[in-house]
């Protein structure tokens, strides 16, 4: 596409032939899980997407070049290197200029997807409004990105460490569509039900694909959130999660951990408090998202081809 973006041959071919491509982020690899769990899940997610007849495109920055579609060797490096910078949309020109490595958050991944023409992106959970926002004004750039990039993001709601009620309210204020998959409430990451009502629901990938085709036909250019609850057998009860989050937030405040360091710190504390249960739940929910996301992407392109709206 240009000298700062390298698209793998497989992804490039799929885009040119109008085939389904599903993007994956690199932050979950470099900052979301410990090695070797991070490498194993990276490979497994790509395998799930391929098994559903879509092409995976994991996106990251290597030596100042945006890579859309990583090799197994590159995925391994992302899982092991300690100098990888967690990058939001604002950080991308800086990393390119300095020729650094960067793992991309939701906002940065969405922006790159929109630049190269990828319509679907699977992640674990969105960033959002942090607790104490009245004092810190800490709101993730992920939320505003939906007003800028026309990408459908399949997730298990927003990360459990966030103020989910304010996150949903902020999305509503920004006019961002949140669709519940087989649910009338916003997914709570480790737990199925946050108790927060959302007002648009679909129960099949075909219904979602038709919705997206209709949105395209109308020329509406904004992102869409698909809130996909974790499977019942892997969820952690919300009451337990809330207690773990409360303890982790208190520890972060005591150690003055803020900004982009806060989320990795809180996730690690959650892992320690839950004796690893949170990592297992994280793995299962993102695999569930990869399955649904690739079903939706495949169905969307079939609807486009058959002009079903």
Walkthrough of the structure:
- The protein is of the alpha/beta class.
- The chain has one domain (about 5-235, about 280-305): 3-Layer(aba) Sandwich (Indigoidine synthase fold).
- Helices cover about 50% and strands about 15% of the residues.
- It contains 13 helices and 11 strands.
- The chain has helices at about 10-15, 25-30, 35-50, 70-80, 90-100, 105-115, 135, 140-145, 165-175, 205-215, 240-255, 260-275, 275-305, and strands at about 5, 20-25, 55-60, 65-70, 85, 100-105, 120, 150-155, 175-180, 200, 225.
- Strands 1, 2, 3, 4, 5, 6, 7, 8, 9, 10 and 11 form an 11-stranded mixed β-sheet that branches.
- Strand 3 and strand 4 form a beta hairpin.
- Helix 3 (about 35-50) packs antiparallel against helix 4, helix 10 packs across helix 13 (about 275-305) and helix 11 packs across helix 12.
- The radius of gyration is 18 Å and the shape is globular.
- It starts with a strand and ends with a helix.
- About 50% of the residues are buried.
- The model has no long low-confidence stretch (mean pLDDT about 95).
């Amino acid at each position: 596409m240009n000298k700062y973006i390298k698209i793998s041959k497989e992804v490039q071919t799929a885009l040119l032939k109008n085939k389904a491509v599903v993007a994956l982020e690199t932050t979950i690899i470099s900052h979301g899980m410990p090695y070797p769990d991070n490498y194993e899940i990276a490979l497994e997610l790509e395998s799930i997407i391929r098994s559903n007849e879509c092409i995976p495109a994991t996106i990251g920055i290597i030596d100042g070049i945006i890579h859309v579609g990583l090799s197994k060797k590159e995925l391994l490096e992302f899982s092991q290197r300690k100098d990888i910078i967690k990058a939001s949309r604002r950080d991308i020109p800086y990393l390119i200029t300095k020729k650094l490595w960067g793992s991309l958050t939701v906002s940065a991944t969405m922006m790159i997807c929109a630049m190269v023409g990828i319509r679907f992106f699977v992640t674990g959970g969105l960033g959002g409004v942090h607790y104490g926002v009245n004092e810190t004004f800490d709101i993730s750039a992920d939320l505003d990105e939906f007003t800028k990039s026309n990408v459908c993001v399949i997730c298990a709601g927003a990360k459990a460490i966030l103020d989910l009620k304010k996150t949903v309210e902020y999305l509503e204020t920004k006019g961002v569509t949140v669709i519940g998959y087989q649910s009338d409430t916003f997914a709570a990451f480790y737990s199925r039900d946050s108790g927060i009502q959302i007002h648009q629901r679909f129960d099949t990938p075909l219904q979602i694909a038709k919705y997206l085709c209709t949105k395209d036909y109308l020329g509406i250019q904004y992102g869409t959130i698909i809130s996909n609850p974790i499977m019942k057998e892997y969820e952690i009860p919300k009451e337990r999660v809330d207690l773990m989050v409360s303890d982790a937030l208190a520890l972060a405040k005591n150690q003055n951990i803020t900004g982009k360091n806060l989320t990795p710190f809180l996730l690690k504390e959650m892992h320690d408090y839950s004796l690893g249960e949170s990592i297992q739940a994280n793995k299962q929910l993102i695999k569930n998202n990869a399955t649904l996301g690739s079903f939706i992407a495949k169905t969307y392109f079939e609807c486009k081809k058959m002009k079903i709206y």
